[in-house]
Amino acid sequence: MSERILDFLRQRRSDGPCVVVDLDIVRDNYLTFSHALPDTRVFYAVKANPAPEIIQLLADLGSCFDCASLAEIEMVLATGAGPERISFGNTIKKERDIARAHALGVSLFAVDCEAEVDKIIRAAPGARVFCRILCDGVGADWPLSRKFGCAPDMAPRVLEHAHRGGLVAHGVSFHVGSQQANVEAWDGALSTAAWIFREMAERGINLAMVNLGGGFPARYLKDMPGVPHYGEAILRALGTHFGNQIPETIIEPGRGMVGDAGIIEAEVVLISRKSDHEDELRWVYLDIGKFNGLAETMDEAIRYPIRTEKDDDRRSPCILAGPTCDSVDVLYEKTPYELPVSLSIGDKVLIGACGAYTTTYSSVAFNGFEPLRSYVI
User: Fold this and answer.
1) Which residues pair with 109 in a beta bridge?
2) Which one of the listed residues 113, 135, 318, 325 is annotated catalytic?
3) Rounded to 5 degrees, what are φ and ψ at 63?
4) Domain ranges (residues) in the chain
5) Parts of the chain with a pLDDT under 70
6) Which fold has domain 260-376?
7) Catalytic residue list contains 318
């Protein structure tokens, strides 16, 4: 855990749960991605953590940005970064938002069906589009649903429709699943992308770009390969499937960029048992739960590292839950956490690797609990 964050928390007057993000770690992560894939442009996935300080730092470092909404686009432009460094990467966009983004100078848009292409033809004539294809996400802790992307055999038709409508059919994108543990996961998707490139060339349309998506992991409880291992595997797969005609490539790290940079400080609100049986597990309730920052504990998909000041004491398994008056606000029950038996009400708990998808998932006033406070240092 970041010593800078720990020092900040020691000096902070406690007034509820908060997340603290260390910009030095974000900077190091950006440079690591840049070195691992030197010919690939980094498009930070703003939705992972849209703190203005993070966006400004990455803009100053030369990063590009994957934006999911008009609001995110405006946040990026506020840093002084130009619209040529922005991709409107959401495949589900209102036509008026497409028009506004285009008026602001954004010219790169994601699509996954002909109806979305039609919106861009009308609202952003001449823009570049890339078609997102479905990917199985095997090996990911947080596999993505079928909400985004089309079957690969549909992609040539979607891209040709864009071309015939006056747009630039620019490329293909995919996402191998968030927190992807398998460095080879990009190989199959790149094989499919190469097939789409060949199919489009036969139709007289030359694609130029492959968006490799995100999926790069943060360090939670499980050991994960480092970014250089992913870079090596991706470069190897590009050579295998594209030979000497490797296209322009971009990546969209979000979790891998900011996840490790953040720590949440929470407090134990209650410790109880549900019966007098000796084997009954303790329930440990924190002042943070699914609705104010820890939504990714859904189905216990993301298992955060947890630290207390009593970690040298004997431990026993417990069920971890949040504070709200909602029965789904249970963080870890199927696989209980080992926490100190001496843990008491009022003790502080540090939850690591919380820089991504915590403030962005935090609700506004559910049960009267305010959104997660955020500090960037």
Assistant:
1) 88, 129
2) 325
3) -65, 155
4) 89-253, 260-376
5) 142, 145
6) Lyase, Ornithine Decarboxylase; Chain A, domain 1 (2.40.37)
7) no
Mean pLDDT of the chain: 95
pLDDT digits (tens, 9 = 90+) for 130-183: 999 998 878 777 677 678 999 999 999 999 999 999 999 999 999 999 899 899
Q: Which fold has domain 89-253?
A: TIM Barrel (3.20.20)
Tell me which DSSP letter residue 91 carries: S
Q: Whose CA is closest to 186, among 176, 197, 195?
A: 176
CA 346 to chain centre: 32
Residue 81 and residue 229: Cα distance in Å, rounded?
Answer: 30
Torsion sign across C-alpha atoms 57, 60, 61, 65: positive
Could you say which DSSP state residue 252 is in? -
DSSP string, 99-150: HHHHHTT--EEEESSHHHHHHHHHHSTT-EEEEEB----TTEEE---TTS-B
pLDDT of residue 139: 77
